[in-house]
Design goal:
Shape: globular
Number of helices: 13
Order of helices and strands: HEEEHEEEEHEHEEEEHHHHHEHHHEH
Distance between the termini: 22 Å
């Protein structure tokens, strides 16, 4: 357990009853589903599978496929990539709407729907210390609120309130807050993105599609030259992983990832300041674990600690990358066992 979340009596009862919970992490690109069972002091997976979300017309269709081959769960808890309002969610990066009452009526099951970053935060209760890695060590260990930022298909952000004994995650939509430029080139990037999208959020640069946008900005506006071998790799369409995986071979890919790390450091510091997250910042999502070496190589720490008069606060905050890319799935399971 990375953070200490308050357990409930229901969790103890669930363990005695061998309760089964189907948990899901519903993303714009990929959906992870797993059936969990309480066993002793642990919550363990029995069955799991991953799907391309866009291969299905609806969540009902996807869940029905998975439920065919597993024991009947007592409860279903889903973390979804979008704001959840009164049990209803409209996903940010795929044209799906998810309604808790509709799902409950269709499957005749007890359903919980939470934001995927809230689920990621709860997932910290299911991880051990070896499933995170420190990329910035705070000078002092100070108890207090924490926060999660997660670049992936989109950009998720969540807060974790500290009540003096336990942590309590809550969802935010901070990834859709306005992108802020710090120099002339940043402002040129802002104008480039504004022409395409109107509103320019942090998600437009801190995500898989954001990496591609930064790359294309450097080509079209800054007039950087593309390497022939990279252009060949893009013949079937742009792919952020090609850019991140070739940053040592391709100067343009390197410059793209340097900007990505810089922007991630800036917005990470913003999140710490907004939540007074002295208890730590956690970087989740699928991108960060795959570019772990770039945090040091491209000076994440230097850019993270550029907050003017409150730089002392920022320097005291420990930043960790979550290595387990299924933290949101684990968090959905934890929530399912512990909440009505």
């Amino acid at each position: 357990m990375i953070l200490n979340f308050k357990p409930s009596t229901k969790q103890l009862q669930a363990k005695k009853q061998d309760m089964l919970v189907l948990a899901g992490d519903i993303g714009g690109t990929k959906t992870n589903l797993a059936l969990f069972k309480a066993s002793g002091d642990e919550i363990v997976p029995l069955h799991n599978n991953s799907y391309h979300t866009s291969d299905f017309s609806s969540l009902i269709e996807l869940l029905a496929l998975f439920l065919k081959d597993i024991p009947d769960p007592h409860k279903i808890c889903l973390g979804v990539a979008g704001p959840v309002l009164k049990g209803h969610a409209k996903l940010s990066n795929i044209k799906w709407e998810i309604d808790q009452k509709e799902l409950k009526k269709h499957f005749k099951k007890d359903f919980s729907i939470i934001n995927d970053l809230e689920a990621t935060a709860y997932g910290l209760a299911m991880l051990n210390e070896f499933e995170t890695v420190v990329i910035h060590q705070g000078k002092d260990q100070i108890s207090g609120n924490a926060a999660v930022i997660a670049p992936g298909t989109g950009l998720g952000e969540a807060g974790i309130y500290w009540d003096g004994r336990f942590y309590h995650p809550f969802a935010t939509e901070g990834g859709h807050a306005d992108f802020a430029s710090r120099n002339a080139q940043d402002f040129d990037l802002f104008l480039y993105l504004q022409k395409q999208f109107g509103h320019v959020s942090w998600e437009r640069v801190l995500s898989g599609p954001g990496i591609i946008q930064i790359y294309q900005f450097l080509v079209h506006e800054v007039k950087r030259e593309e390497s022939a071998f990279i252009k060949e790799k893009f013949k079937n369409g742009y792919d952020a992983s090609i850019i991140s995986q070739n940053n040592e071979k391709c100067p343009l890919c390197k410059e793209t990832m340097q900007l990505f790390i810089r922007f991630l450091a800036f917005e990470s510091a913003n999140l710490v300041l907004k939540h007074n997250a002295t208890g730590g910042l956690f970087i989740g999502g699928g991108i960060a674990p795959s570019i772990l070496n770039l945090f040091k190589e491209y000076d994440f720490n230097r850019f993270f600690c550029q907050s003017g008069r409150l730089n002392d606060l920022i320097e005291n905050v420990t930043v960790r990358v979550i290595l387990n890319t299924k933290a949101a799935l684990l968090g959905a399971a934890w929530f399912g066992f512990n909440h009505d």
